[in-house]
Specification:
- The protein is of the alpha+beta class.
- The chain is built from nine helices and eleven strands.
- Helix 1 crosses helix 9, helix 2 packs across helix 5 and helix 3 crosses helix 4.
- The protein is globular and about 55 Å long.
């Protein structure tokens, strides 16, 4: 009996150091993994903050930010600030000059689709017909994906997904021909007489409008709660049947994507193709006033954000008074 007890104790003494070392190693691995996860989020946050700081610095470094009359100088070739409630123009630059509007088009796409009162929970498929063959743009939305009409609307406005906008158009009663006709009829009804649409994505440079017309479109789009909600979502995960895990889609507007107490944004849409330059339209509250902001044909990736910041600072200093 003593011999068996002795052998058991000896065996236990040999095993324990290894099991203890293994447990310690696993604990160390868990701690390191947690630290790496935290480090990853810190790095992502730092990158976001760097982009915002870069845009903010662009405002301060913009040569002669104000004219002798006290008007802000903007990088955008066409721009407009409108009092949302009254329609009064607070700032204007080439506001009636027609120009390609890129994905800002998708606000009209959203209104036309919602006006049809189609079932938002209906499942629609993304097909080869939705692939961009004009510009060859990339997409995170694979052919074969099946999503609800509501999810496609969310992607089209928040992340400017061209395939999502195309799928919404294809599944409209009468197809693309009827959809584009409805877009132009809607534009005419809103008094957008210098605007013309040929596709639902904005990839075609023949989609043209003016800053004043787009201000009318933004004011109209603001009346749709669904457009306000999805266009101001910072990000959203979607289940795509070709992936095992949900895929994250982010807002294309840096001011929406990053929390910023200086901005209260109620609607947003960006756009870019080479013919249009960088575009941005928003509804926002500045100094307690609801305004519509339009920036078209802006140079550089951050210049439209810089222009928005310049306008905000100008309005806060100017007391939201119109020019002139």
């Amino acid at each position: 009996m003593f011999k068996k007890t002795f052998l058991f104790c000896l065996l236990l003494s040999l095993i324990l150091p290894f099991t203890g070392a293994e447990a310690a190693q696993k604990k160390t691995h868990r701690i390191n993994a947690k630290h790496e996860h935290v480090k990853k989020h810190v790095v992502i946050h730092a990158k976001k903050q760097h982009k915002l700081e870069k845009a903010s610095n662009a405002v301060d470094s913009f040569k002669e930010s104000y004219t002798s009359a006290g008007e802000p100088k903007l990088a955008s070739a066409k721009a407009l600030v409108m009092d949302q409630a009254t329609g009064e123009i607070l700032y204007g630059k080439n506001i009636d000059k027609p120009t390609p509007i890129a994905s800002v088009t998708k606000l009209m796409t959203a209104m036309v689709m919602l006006d049809a009162h189609l079932p938002m929970d209906e499942i629609l498929a993304v097909t080869e017909a939705d692939v961009d063959k004009l510009k060859g743009s990339s997409s995170k939305l694979p052919v074969g994906s099946e999503l609800t009409r509501q999810e496609l609307l969310h992607m089209a406005l928040m992340s400017s997904e061209n395939r999502a906008a195309s799928a919404l158009c294809r599944n409209y009663p009468g197809g693309e021909t009827a959809f584009v006709a409805a877009m132009n009829a809607k534009a005419n009804a809103l008094g957008m007489h210098d605007s013309h649409f040929v596709d639902p994505t904005g990839l075609n440079s023949n989609n043209v409008s003016t800053a004043i017309d787009l201000a009318k479109m933004v004011r109209a789009a603001y009346n749709y709660p669904q457009i306000r909600q999805v266009s101001t979502s910072p990000s959203q995960e979607f289940n795509l049947n070709s992936y095992r895990h949900p895929v994250n889609f982010s807002n294309t507007n840096l001011l929406v994507r990053n929390s910023n107490s200086k901005w209260v944004i109620g609607l947003s849409k960006t756009g870019y193709i080479s013919e249009a330059g960088r575009c941005l339209v928003m509804q926002a509250e500045i100094s307690g006033k609801g305004v519509v902001l339009v920036f078209l044909d802006s140079m550089g990736k951050l210049s439209r954000i810089g222009d928005a910041e310049r306008i905000r600072k100008w309005m806060e200093h100017n007391g939201s008074r119109p020019i002139g």
